[in-house]
Amino acid sequence: MHLHDLWFFVIALLWVGYFFLEGFDFGIGILTRLLARGEDERRVLINTIGPVWDGNEVWLVTAAGATFAAFPDWYATLFSGFYLPMFVILLCLILRVVAFEYRAKRNGERWKRNWEAIIFITSLVLAFIWGLLFAAMVHGLPIGADHQFRGSLSDLVHPYAILGGVTTTVLFTFHGAVFASLKTVGTIRHRARHLAQKLGVLVIALLLAFLTWTQVQTGNPRSLVAEVIAVLAIVAAIGFNFGQREGRAFISSGLSVVAATAMLFLALFPQVMPSSLNPAWSLTATNAAAGAYTLGIITWVAGFATPLVLLYQGWTYWVFRKRIGVQHIPAPVVHGPVHGSHAAR
Amino acid sequence: MHLALAPDTIARWQFGMTTVYHYLFVPLTISLVAITAGLETAWVRTGKTKYFHATKFWGKLFLINIAMGVATGLVQEFQFGMNWSAYSRFVGDVFGAPLALEALLAFFFESTFIGLWIFGWDKLPKKIHCACIWMVSIGTILSTYFILAANSFMQNPVGYRLDRTGGKAHLTDIAAVLFQKLNLVVVAHTLTASFLTGAAFVMGISAIHLWRAARRQRAGRPTDLKQVAAMRTSLRLGLVLAVIFGLGTAISGDKLGEVMFEQQPMKMAAAEALWDKEAPAPFSAFSVPDVANHRNSVDVQVPGLLSFLAHKDFHSAVPGINDTAKAEAAKYGGSPSAYMPNVPMTYWGFRAMILFGMTSFSLGAAGLWLTRRKFWLAPEFRTGSFDVPRMMLTKKRELGPAVTGLVWRALIFTLAFPVIANSFGWIFTAMGRQPWAVTGLLRTVDAVSPNVSLTEQLITLIGFALLYIALAVVELKLLVKYAGAGPVTADRPPMRDIKLGGGSTEPGAEQNPDKPLAFAY
User: Fold this and answer.
1) CA of B191, closest CA in chain A: separation in Å?
2) On chain A, which terminus has fewer CB atoms closer than 10 Å, C or N?
3) Cβ contact (<8 Å) for A87 and B82?
4) What is the 3-state secondary structure (H, E, C) of B20-64?
5) What is the ipTM of this complex?
6) A67 vs chain B: nearest CA distance in angstroms?
7) In sequence order, which residues have a C-beta less than 8 Å from that of residue A319 and are 6 or more positions away?
8) B43 to chain A nearest CA, in Å?
């Protein structure tokens, strides 16, 4: 196996990791509107991902950085081709980071409502756009012989891409609901489980439709295997969820996200960005790759760093493994008059 | 002027805006996290609550900052692909490597351990909790290193070869990129300047609190002594750091100048508004560059000093802007004036950087002197114990209120000076490199994305600008609020040490699974 093929799979793995992890935290963001009743419950949901969402997001930073290093042409065509969607993604990511950190930093009713609205909207938009973007990429784009994107926004938005966006949105919401039922106690836990159950049928239908369309369009035997795994995993997730086996349900819904993402990459390989103008102009894992020297270096570093990252990120989940409920939410910190000597909770 | 709307102009505005904005938060983040880590270590080792309160206080300000730093850092990473795709294709092989290393080796560290630190107060043993913030600190410093290695490559490309068509640079020697002389000096300069920034921030905010406390005391109103204790420690720490890192910034800056005289003569000639080669070369104290005629209309100079700064002797020749531009035009073609950066911007950017940076250092030195144990004031100027902000002084507390009042004001006033200096430093270093994106290899005009329309670029430029302004207001409000409130002295440190993974061992904790979280969003 060539190093550039290996790196195709490393990058696929980074995206898989990103969607697995940030998938449920987008879901939680969406659920702050769909599931939570009242401020305390919204805070419970937000705090289930509080200690980990920042670490989850690094998977994206790393995926982008690794693409830059391993496939400069892919990085350049992807980010300049999806210029406006990327802009929306950036706006949402920025606002989302700030919303989590700043929401509880002041006590005004409006202040909190506004940041909560931002958490909901950005989570929803991000979940949708990532799906749209990946679907559009797998579908093929007007890419010229010079590897430049030659289209416009309308080339990115078509029924298949929109179906992709809707699928990720619902799938992540489901994944988030399962995570919420795993991480909370009290009534919110049960409502999360019931919501996941209701979402189940929709998730299966969408996933089956989107992945089958992908399979018909660009599939191969490997991607078919991934599709089957993705669909079976979601069925298992719904089953475990029904049986109140929340841990297993979460692993299954995660597996489904993993397999669905993997399927998109398997359908792409060995291309990275197929050209709809002329197949010969497509970017491939070979012609978009960096030199062997660069690939060699990042391979060594990734080989050393990845287990370490998995270890300490895993440890974080272990440290914060306890379920939380409304009773664990401390009263908001109130600061006294400017000279806050008697500030207390 | 149609040129003002060229795609590369908009892309450059966006890059400049994002970089300067991002860099408002980075140095504070780097230094505040280390200061927080130092204070938490002091708390773990001594058990004194003043260290605990100081840790929480500076930690909170650090968190408000890093949220913005992380958010705007994402734009930095994405915009190379979005606005500068030709650049990305050309140097991705070289430039992407340090970025990928940064993400894998540093950023994961930072982001994961920050979560552990914020939410882990009652979940982790003290020492492990403290180790977490050190991990974050190490992460930020490693990040700085890799990012600057990438930037140094743009300033002075090394460790690469061009492919046959000349359309791509390929990495041949990662060690050359990571350890080139320029990068080592730039890292030293950037880190020392970051710590000077944090020191000034700590100095200024502690000074506000101590000054207020002093006034309250004089007015006979009660003072929160715990807060004063935490702020007093912080002030001394800030002063010491300002002196150490102020000196460090000056020394590394001087060294950096030397390296740049050698590697980027044009940038330094422009920084000095030195148009023609001179031997010995004078240092410009004040010039008004006349760009159209390639000379200065006003010149106030210190003879020989520039030769000394560049080569450590008073007589050697330093090439000027005109000579260097001619040489570059001969080498790469075109007219000499195409190879000149914006001279007034470079000249004033360089000076503003030094001026704003060194003010805080001088004040740190003055403050340290004024808060030492022995005083130089005659006894008749010494005042009683209560009307002087005695928390500023150690032991003997003798100082005229006029003097101390001025020092307080000065410390508060210069709180943000290094932040301004940092911005000018980056403006200088990026503008001084023009017209090159990668010195000698790729022009900035050739680096932009050819497929992105002007409209699209304008949309994102305006969009980001509006967002940045809105967030700056929010962030500033929060900083003022939390900095103004001072340490929350009602905060009590975790009672006893906690066994790792075993949950809390506080009395009764096992009986009460509903104990609220130590921290929640």
Assistant:
1) 23
2) N
3) yes
4) HHHHHHHHHHHHHHHHHHHHHHHHHHHCCHHHHHHHHHHHHHHHH
5) 0.86
6) 8
7) A51, B116, B120, B123, B124, B501
8) 21
DSSP state of B103: I
CB-CB under 8 Å, B88 with A339: no
- Residue B499: Cβ within 10 Å count: 11
Could you read off the pLDDT of B409-449 as tens digits, one per residue?
A: 888 888 889 999 999 999 998 888 888 888 888 888 888 88
Helices and strands counted in chain A (H then E): 11, 2
Average pLDDT over residues B218-236: 82
* Helix (H/G/I), strand (E/B), else coil: B162: strand
Partners of B221 on chain A (C-beta within 8 Å) are none
Query: B28-66 burial string, b = 16+ CB within 10 Å, else e?
Result: bbbbbbbbbbbbbbbbbeeeebbbbbbbbbbbbbbbbbb
Please, what sign has the CA dihedral across residues B146, A265, A312, B73?
positive
Structure tokens at A153: 């926004």
Which among B103, B113, B516 has the least Cβ separation from residue A62? B103
Round to whole Å and give the CA distance between B270 and B293: 14
**Number of other residues whose CB lies within 10 A of the CB of residue A242:** 13
Whole-number Å distance between alpha carbons of B433 and B266:
8
Selection from A314, A333, A257 nearest residue A16 by Cα: A257
A337 pLDDT band, cuts 50/70/90, is very low
Q: Is the pLDDT of residue B283 over 90?
A: no
Find the DSSP H helices in B264-382.
265-271, 305-311, 321-332, 343-370
The beta-carbon neighbor of A68 closest among B80, B481, B515 is B80
Contact call for B449 and A80, based on CB within 8 A? yes
Strand, helix or coil for residue B386:
coil
Task: Flag if A291 and B112 touch (Cβ within 8 Å).
Answer: no
Minimal C-alpha gap between B3 and chain A (Å): 22
Q: What is the DSSP letter of A201?
A: H
- Average pLDDT score, chain A: 88
A245, two tokens: 């086996």
Query: Which tokens is A21 given?
Result: 């992890």
Residue B88 tokens, joined? 């990305």
A302/B172 Cβ within 8 A: no
B20, with CB counted inside 10 A (0-12, 13-18, 19+), is middle
**How many Å apart are CA A94 and CA B472, to the nearest integer?**
13
Beta-ladder partners of B452: none
Instruction: Specify the pLDDT at position B496.
Output: 55
What pLDDT is recorded for position B217? 73
Q: Is the pLDDT of residue B95 over 60?
A: yes
CA distance A131 to A211: 12
SS3 B15: helix
Give phi and psi for B374, each to the nearest 5: -100, 145
pLDDT higher than 60, residue B362: yes
pTM for the model: 0.87
pLDDT tens-digit series, residues A176-218? 999 999 999 888 898 999 999 999 999 999 999 999 999 888 8
Query: Residue B443 forms beta bridges with which residues?
Result: B436
